[in-house]
């Protein structure tokens, strides 16, 4: 199966086989989640809190641009 080319080796007679469709859905869902820089858990991107310059200067081993889940953000005082 090649998602980029939209081809599959199965014998399906439909325009887009179920393997390609399932692969596209899986890839779409994978892009909607990201790992927390604090605990490593996978959470929806919209829930992540990004560390700014001021918060990074507080000295909690956080860097500008790190993204934290709500629990880690609360733990670090964000």
Notes on the protein architecture:
- The structure is a single chain.
- The protein has 78 residues and is α+β, with helices and mostly antiparallel strands.
- The chain folds into two domains: 1-31, no CATH class; 33-75, no CATH class.
- 31% of the residues lie in helices and 13% in strands.
- It is built from three helices and four strands; from the N terminus they run αβββαβα.
- It has a two-stranded antiparallel ribbon with strand order 1-2. A two-stranded antiparallel sheet has the order 3-4.
- A hairpin with a 6-residue loop joins β1 and β2.
- The longest helix is centred in the N-terminal third of the chain and has 14 residues, at 18-31.
- The mean pLDDT is 75.
Low-pLDDT runs: none
Which of globular, elongated, flat, extended, rod-shaped describes the shape?
Answer: rod-shaped
The helix/strand series, from N terminus to C terminus, equals HEEEHEH
Strand element count: 4
Largest sheet: 2 strands, antiparallel
Helix content: 25-40%
How much β-strand is present in the residues?
Answer: 5-15%
Q: From the helix content, strand content and strand pairing, which structural class follows?
A: alpha+beta
Round the Cα radius of gyration to an integer and report it.
Answer: 19 Å
What is the count of DSSP helices, taking H or I runs of 4+ residues? Answer: 3
Number of domains: 2
Read across the widest sheet, the strand sequence of neighbours is: 1-2
N- to C-terminal distance: 44 Å
Mean pLDDT, nearest integer?
75
């Amino acid at each position: 199966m090649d998602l980029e080319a939209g081809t599959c080796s199965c014998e399906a007679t439909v325009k887009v086989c179920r393997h390609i469709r399932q692969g596209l859905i899986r890839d779409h869902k994978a892009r909607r989640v990201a790992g927390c820089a604090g605990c490593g858990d996978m959470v929806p991107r919209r829930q992540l809190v990004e560390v700014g310059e001021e918060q990074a200067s507080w000295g909690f081993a956080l860097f500008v641009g790190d993204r934290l889940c709500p629990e880690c953000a609360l733990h670090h005082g964000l």
